[in-house]
Amino acid sequence: MDFSLSDDQVLLRDTARTMLAKECPASLVRAHVDDVTVADALWSKLSDFTALGDGPASDLFLFVEETGYVAAPGVFFPTVAMFAPLLQALDHELLPSVLAGEATGTVALAGADGHFVPNDEPVKTFVPEADRVDWVAVVDTGPKVRIIPAGDVALRQTRLVDFSRRHFEVDTANVKSDTLALDPAAFDDVVAHTTGALAAEMVGTSRRLLDMAIAYAKERIQFDVPIGSFQAIQHRLAECSLAVERSIAAVQYAGMTLDASDAERFRAVHVAKAAAGTAAMRATKDAAQVHGGIGYTWEHDLHLYFRRALASEYWLGTARWHHDRLAELLFER
After folding, report:
1. Which domain holds residue 312?
2. Is residue 266 situated within a structural domain?
3. HSE on the CB side for 131, CA within 13 Å?
4. Residue 333: its pLDDT value, please?
5. Is the pTM of this model over 0.85?
6. Tens digit of pLDDT for each residue in 104-157?
7. In a domain, 213, yes or no
8. Angle (nearest 5°) at CA 62 between 129 and 9
9. Is residue 222 situated within a structural domain?
10. In CATH, what number is assigned to the domain containing residue 263?
């Protein structure tokens, strides 16, 4: 069986890399800390790719891996990797406008414990970009879904380590809207799709951290030679590279199982998020240590990417949490 990328997938990946390298430099991510509107210009480019939200998961994963590489801020991920799959499962009338890049949305699901499972708590937590989207899909026990204009809900921003992806608490206690029932199995697929997409994005961020560490090891001179010539640095970067490669394979496999509706897809997604989290934590630590003191400064761009890696590891379940869920699925056999 041939697992190599198709010509169309190579074109998609290369197009994303070229476009994002131009439209989302580190300076934009840094400027987003103080002015969230700088991401609007990036969204005008990314909105051309919103149809990926209703296409093969393997294609979406390739694209969001590149957005993770640049730590792209804004509404693209919640709209395409969260909101669109949920609308598709509901066969909702808003889906065409979302896929056309004309409307944006996010999903409010987690309760006070932060777990991504349906609940009846009026306040939903860790809702990404809730103040910048047009619609908020609120998921309650059932699961039942309410599609609410974003301006109708009360918001409170949650300060996290990652400045490039902003999270909010959404209070829906006083909001009245129609409730749509969703098949639990279909909802499980939506969650798996979103989790896999986040894992793919984390792979991109890990690659960025590794690439920055390798580049610095080549240019930093100590004892009249590049520090990359030291065996200790080489071993550290080699082990990090292996972790990143494992996560790439796990994410690509998860995408294929989701596209095939394979019975292994939920296990594959747990493996992908766990592998991506492990690689991200390894890349964060190794990149910071290879850079030495400069890697811990505000002025250096490294922190922009390990902030994204750290926050993503804890969003939608840590590696340890996914290992536990994987064990539960294996013992069900």
Report:
1. 184-331
2. yes
3. 12
4. 59
5. yes
6. 999 999 999 999 999 999 999 999 999 999 999 999 999 999 999 999 999 999
7. yes
8. 140
9. yes
10. 1.20.140.10
- Residue 143 preceded by cis peptide, ω within 30: yes
Q: How many CB atoms lie within 10 A of CB 254?
A: 33
pLDDT digits over 20-38, tens only?
999 999 999 999 999 999 9
- The answer to whether the beta carbons of residues 318 and 270 sit under 8 Å apart is no
Tokens encoding 198: 């986040």
Q: Residue 329 — very low, low, confident or very high, per pLDDT cuts 50/70/90? A: confident
What whole-number distance in Å separates Cα of residue 187 and Cα of residue 181?
Answer: 10
Our count of domains for the chain comes to 1
Is residue 273 included in any domain, yes or no? yes
Tell me which amino acid residue 246 is.
R
What is the rounded distance in angstroms from the CA atom of residue 135 to the CA atom of residue 252? 30
